[in-house]
Design goal:
It is built from 5 helices and 2 strands. By secondary structure, it is mainly alpha-helical.
Length: 85
């Protein structure tokens, strides 16, 4: 998928948007989060389901704050900037 196609993919997380290099980097960062600071798998999946339905998610990036939702959702104490989770 081209970069312009990835940028217009509304409701796509990084792995769906064709931005594999960034996705792999985000996954590497998530793996380094201490378990005590990480959201549980069920919570992580629930958070990302809200992100996928959000109009602020374009090309794997939250346009409300500029984050990668996969990374933000991985932290136990992080919150959605649009207050959806």
């Amino acid at each position: 998928m081209s970069e312009s196609a990835a940028e217009t993919c509304i409701g796509c997380l990084l792995w769906e948007s064709g931005r594999a290099e960034i996705y792999e980097s985000v996954q590497a960062h998530i793996e380094k989060i201490p378990l005590k600071d990480r959201a549980e798998d069920a919570e992580y999946d629930k958070r990302l389901s809200y992100c996928r339905a959000c109009t602020h998610l374009i090309g794997g990036t939250c346009m409300k704050c500029g984050c990668y939702p996969e990374l933000r959702a991985a932290f136990r104490t992080q919150r959605c900037p649009a207050k959806k989770w």
